[in-house]
Specification:
The complex is a heterodimer of chains A (505) and B (330). Helix content of chain A is 37%, strand content 25%. Chain A has 505 residues and is α/β, with parallel strands linked by helices. Chain A has three domains: 9-97 and 141-243, Rossmann fold (3-Layer(aba) Sandwich), CATH 3.40.50; 245-333 and 430-437 and 450-505, 3-Layer(aba) Sandwich (Rossmann fold), CATH 3.40.50; 342-417, no CATH class. In chain A, the strands form five sheets. In chain A, strands 6-9-10-3-11-12 form a six-stranded mixed β-sheet, sandwiched between helices. In chain A, strand 11 (213-218) and strand 12 form a beta hairpin. In chain B, the strands form two sheets. In chain B, strands 1-4 form a two-stranded antiparallel ribbon. A two-stranded antiparallel sheet of chain B has the order 2-3. Chain B is built from 14 helices and four strands. In chain B, helix 2 (33-42) crosses helix 8. Chain B has one domain (4-329): ABC transporter involved in vitamin B12 uptake, BtuC, CATH 1.10.3470. In chain B, 75% of the residues lie in helices and 3% in strands. Chain B has 330 residues and is mainly α. Chain B has helices spanning 7-26, 33-42, 44-58, 66-83, 88-112, 117-135, 145-152, 165-183, 185-195, 197-202, 207-233, 244-254, 266-286, 293-329, and strands at 140-141, 154-156, 162-164, 235-236. Chain A binds chain B through residues 77-78, 81, 93-98, 102-103, 106-107, 109, 111, 114-116, 118, 140-141, 143-144, 146-147, 157, 161, 176, 178-179, 291-293, and chain B through 3-5, 179, 183-185, 187-189, 191-192, 194-196, 199-205, 262-263, 316, 320, 323-325, 327-330.
């Protein structure tokens, strides 16, 4: 089957127009049997649109799709599944309230007369999951299992339903290393079965680890398809961006102006974060490093008052201040971009304009509305300076891609003109282009004299912009690196050193 | 093994047994088959309509029209049997068709116009009540020999309890509904909708037909409930069963079904109904309490069950967080 030379899927001339924009322009993509094919591109390059056209979520405005030698015309997700194209999204699109087996078989349950044959269904589910190397009780609700297992259940469902092409849209975004390994072993099995796998991600390391070929999109056009064993990461990145990233990353960091802005003394909450001290100066970027669950987010939330501290005090410009809730924090010129933008940040159905103005209006108080002209001005200003890509300001924010949503969130807080900005994982789940733009923006804000506290799990990123890095482990501050000490290796060492320490003690 | 999803049902069952034990301890007569038979007879119409409501709530919706539909059914039957020569069984079939179609129309409106169920069924509530008023504002007695026959049918058990046909209809409804909800594709689709409509659609659940069927079932069962109510009262009155939709919702929630949809059991609603009936029976037995105490106790129970649901949701997210924490530590 893998030797069959005809491609599994061949799409040519795919075009899609949205009011005011050309989302896809004459796109061609070929997927071979038993191939893992990366689909790469910046936010808004057209990856999602292409997938949606291939799976019938959107009606394409032009082009032909040949699947397994036959012309197809998918009308809906359901239809494309029947044709043989299955999709698994980053957010597991399964039902947490149903059992694993029900999720696997929904819509095609084994029947016994008019009734669902539960026992047969559970047995079949158990068997097909065992093939993927996971041994769980499929009669339990899906929500009882961790995300990685849920993801594999989703893949198993997509493969069983479709079995020709499997599209994985950012499947690893919320997984840890071991879980990624498990997922990759599953993907390799699918490859061995002759399935064509499309892998969309912003982790280039993963692309080079598992994919055979990559198609790169930019501004709705295919800019190249490459055999991955013949190119380097830099080649791919320059293809994606159409410009050099390296130069930007190597700009010298701006120095802080040295005026003390915020003093944090013995701030902490029992059971959540050990008390810590931290002084933050104007024009300084302080990085928070540590493993997942080490207390990065907790630190950010405590300072911002999103979680009330048990003890400790804050001094702003040498004056004591009391922060009991985020409102107080905002009043003192603080701002926080939370990690989980879907649940804690964006208001999906409101327009981009409304999302940008939200924090500023909240600070002004509802009794003093900001004039519509001013609102439009502010919104347009940030859309321009942050290079947010959208059709118009009135479109609901949920329609934007992840990186653009993140930029809108940033714009929301920048609009309040904060003195102190806390960013929690500002580059999580966004692609490499927006990534470097956000990093550049951090540098710019710093130059303008803003103090920033950035929590991030990406060491290289902290190295590029932080003046100081605070290392956290097990809900405790365990080290601080400054100036030239800040390298990925040193950060990793600082995280690991404490473990050895514990080992000796 | 007890699953977290079963806990509300177990809590309901436990509440019922505890309440019954307390009642029986204070008034041993409450153990008699008469009380049991009356419990079933008196709550038959509410039980039937609550079954429909369970489907609706499981799917994440709400149906406020059912109380009015019951009244409409009663008036419709009374008028038809008084003014025409249509045989009662034909009238029953006719009214079941009308009410199911009415429910289906509301379901279609909810789905195709993407309107919140609350608003659509609120409109349905006024429409059905209005239609009942238009037919007649008086209480019309139903005197038809077929009604006499149906009302005289009962099974007299030891101890003098008379198990009437309408209680039987209710129990049959519960059994059939439980099989449909838990053992058929349609049932799983209802749960799937309650778990998340967008996801369900992506997974290939026929959202349109499922939504329409759910509200058609609710409407049809409200019609059946109306038939049962007319047998129970031998009359049709447009002012009857005001607020019954809220009693039905209360029974569903006390029965352990999550108001946000996706979790719950038909059997839970049965015990929800029995608990509500039991409270009324207790107040009758006591004799000194105002019957409005029923509402207060039901209010308290509802509140307790909402707290329980909240607690369970909270506990399950807590547990999941703990699991994730462990994973990252390893």
């Amino acid at each position: 089957m893998t030797n069959d030379p005809t491609p599994m899927l061949h799409a040519t001339g795919i075009s899609k127009f949205f009011p005011g924009t050309i989302a896809l322009d004459d796109v061609e993509i070929t997927l071979n049997r038993g191939e893992i094919h990366a689909l790469l591109g910046e936010n808004g390059a057209g990856k999602s649109t292409l997938i949606k056209c291939l799976t019938g979520v959107y009606r394409r405005d032009g082009g032909e799709i040949t699947l397994d030698g036959k012309h197809v015309n998918p009308q809906s997700t359901n239809h494309s599944q029947i044709l043989g194209i299955g999709t698994v999204y980053q957010e597991v699109n399964l039902l947490p309230n149903l059992t694993v087996a029900e999720n696997l078989h929904l819509g095609r349950q084994p029947m016994y007369g008019p009734f669902v044959a539960r026992r047969a269904m559970n047995a079949a589910a158990k068997k097909s999951l065992l093939e993927f190397g996971i041994d769980i009780d499929p009669a339990q609700p899906l929500s009882d299992y961790p995300v990685a297992i849920q993801q594999i259940v989703a893949i198993a469902r997509a493969v069983e339903m479709s079995g020709k092409v499997l599209i994985l849209d950012e499947p690893t975004a919320s997984l840890d290393l071991d879980e990624v390994k498990l997922l990759f072993s599953v993907i390799r099995q699918l490859k061995a079965r002759g399935i064509a796998v499309v892998f969309i991600t912003h982790f280039l390391d993963q692309v080079f680890e598992i994919c055979d070929r990559a198609t790169v999109l930019r501004n709705g056009q295919v800019v190249g398809t490459r055999e991955l064993n013949q190119v380097s990461q830099t080649d791919i990145i320059s293809l994606m961006l159409g410009r050099q990233l390296e130069a930007r990353l190597q700009e010298p960091k701006p120095k802080s102006s040295g005026t003390l802005l915020l003093q944090i003394k013995e701030l902490g909450k029992s059971g959540m974060l050990a008390p810590f001290n931290l002084n933050i100066h104007k024009g300084e970027v302080v990085g928070l490093a540590g493993l997942l669950g080490s207390g990065r987010t907790e630190t950010a939330n405590l300072i911002f008052g999103a979680v009330k501290a048990d003890f400790g005090q804050l001094k702003l410009h040498n004056k004591h201040i009391q922060i009991n809730n985020p409102r107080d924090a905002v009043a003192h010129g603080f701002a926080l971009c939370p990690e989980d933008r879907k649940t804690e940040g964006i208001v999906g159905d409101l327009s981009v304009r409304e999302n940008i103005i939200l924090a500023l209006q909240a600070r002004q108080g509802w009794l003093r509305p900001i004039s519509r002209r001013k609102v439009d001005e502010i919104a347009q200003h940030y859309v321009r300076t942050l290079d947010i890509r959208l059709a118009n300001l009135e479109m609901p924010i949920r329609l934007l891609s992840g990186g653009n949503q993140q930029k809108v969130l940033l714009a929301r807080w920048l609009a309040t003109d904060p003195d102190f900005l806390i960013l929690d994982e500002p580059t999580r789940g966004i692609d490499i282009g927006a990534h470097s733009e956000i990093i550049a923006l951090i540098g710019q804000l710093q130059k303008d004299g803003m103090a920033l506290l950035v929590a991030s799990s990406e060491m290289e990123e902290l190295v590029t912009y932080a003046n100081r890095v605070i290392v956290l482990r097990d809900h405790k501050q365990v080290g601080e690196l400054t100036g030239a000490e800040i390298t990925s290796n040193n950060i990793i060492r600082a995280i690991a050193a404490e473990t050895e320490h514990e080992g000796i003690a | 093994m007890i699953r977290s999803t079963h806990l509300p049902l177990i809590a309901t069952l436990f509440t019922f047994l505890l309440a019954y034990a307390l009642c029986a301890w204070q008034f041993p007569a409450m153990l008699s088959t008469r009380v049991v038979a009356n419990l079933l007879t008196d709550n038959a119409f509410l039980g039937i309509v609550a079954v429909g409501m369970t489907f609706v709530i499981l799917s994440g919706g709400i149906d406020l029209s059912v109380g009015s539909v019951i009244a409409f059914t009663g008036v419709f039957l009374a008028v038809v049997l008084r003014d025409t020569s249509i045989p009662p069984m034909m009238a029953f079939a006719l009214v079941l068709f009308i009410t199911s179609a009415f429910g289906a129309a509301m379901g279609a409106t909810i789905h195709y116009l993407e309107m919140p169920p609350f608003i659509v069924t609120l409109a349905g509530m006024f429409l059905a009540r209005g239609a009942a008023y238009v037919m007649s504002t008086d209480s019309i007695p139903i005197t038809h020999e077929f009604y006499d026959v149906l009302q005289s049918l009962y099974w007299k058990s030891a101890g003098g309890g008379r198990f009437r046909i309408i209680g039987g209809i209710m129990i049959l409804t519960f059994i059939v509904a439980a099989i449909i909800a838990h053992r058929t594709k349609f049932g799983q689709n209802v749960y799937a909708l309650g778990g998340g409509a967008t996801t369900a659609r992506l997974m290939g659940v026929p959202v349109a037909s499922t939504t329409i069927k759910i509200y058609a079932i609710s409407g049809g069962l409200a019609g059946l409930s109306g038939i049962v109510f007319s047998l129970y009262t031998s009359a049709g009155y447009s002012l009857a069963t005001v607020g019954v939709e809220l009693d039905a919702i209360a029974a569903v929630v006390i029965g352990g079904t999550l108001l946000t949809g996706g979790y719950g059991f038909i059997a839970g609603t049965f015990f929800g109904i029995l608990i509500m009936g039991l409270i009324q029976t207790y107040i009758v037995f006591d004799g000194t309490l105002s019957s409005w105490w029923t509402k207060i106790v039901i209010g308290g129970l509802l509140f307790a069950f909402i707290l329980l649901q909240k607690g369970l949701t909270w506990a399950s997210t807590k547990r999941k967080k703990a699991v994730i924490g462990l994973d990252t530590q390893s």
